[in-house]
């Protein structure tokens, strides 16, 4: 597993629950250090132990923790760059949703060896949308559920999201019902970086 994923889990635990909880999780994971290097690769078993240790320490199911991780990746000030990258997907939530079809290719331009979940979104006959998420590590769909909730808030959209499990192909399925595109004001966003 790419170190950036393990590092994201580390930062989520540390920034949200404190350095003492992270120290306990790192000790339980037993990966030979107290911090992950973002540009290294780690055996998948380390990531599985990391998720298990974090869920035990936080007394949460792994799927709930992964959803919280997804929310953190978009909403916490320490990872503002991810939010900015996602907001380049469009001016409205609907545009952002359909930009997810290209996220894997865009991510490979920046980090060719990072395994990004393969995302596909399409509109259903009833006007709802289906997002499929496929990754070698099961459960990434729950992180995407958190990302989608946080991005809906970011855009000011009112959505109903539901993780609907796995297909036989291994894809996780998320149902998205966009109830109102402009429900609230949303967070401010400027495509150009402001000079300070």
UniProtKB/TrEMBL annotation:
UniProt-recorded name of the protein: Heme-NO-binding protein
Highest taxon in the source lineage: Bacteria
Ranges of residues in domain Heme NO-binding: 2-157
GO MF terms, alphabetically ordered: heme binding
């Amino acid at each position: 597993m790419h170190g950036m994923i393990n590092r994201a889990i580390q930062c989520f635990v540390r920034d949200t629950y404190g350095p003492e909880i992270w120290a306990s999780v790192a000790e339980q994971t037993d990966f030979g250090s107290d911090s992950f290097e973002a540009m290294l690769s780690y055996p998948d078993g380390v990531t599985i132990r990391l998720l298990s240790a974090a869920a035990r320490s936080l007394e949460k199911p792994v799927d709930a923790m992964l959803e919280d991780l997804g929310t953190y990746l978009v909403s916490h000030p320490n990872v503002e760059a991810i939010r900015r990258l996602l907001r380049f997907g469009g001016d409205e939530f609907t545009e952002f949703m359909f930009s997810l079809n290209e996220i894997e290719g865009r991510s490979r331009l920046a980090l060719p060896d990072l395994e990004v979940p393969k995302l596909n979104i399409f509109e259903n006959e009833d006007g709802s949308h289906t997002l499929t998420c496929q990754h070698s590590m099961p459960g990434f769909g729950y992180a995407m559920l958190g990302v989608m909730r946080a991005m809906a808030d970011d855009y000011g959209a009112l959505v109903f999201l539901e993780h609907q499990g796995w297909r036989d192909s291994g894809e996780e399925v998320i149902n998205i019902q966009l109830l109102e595109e402009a429900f609230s004001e949303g967070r401010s966003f400027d495509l150009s970086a402001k000079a300070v």
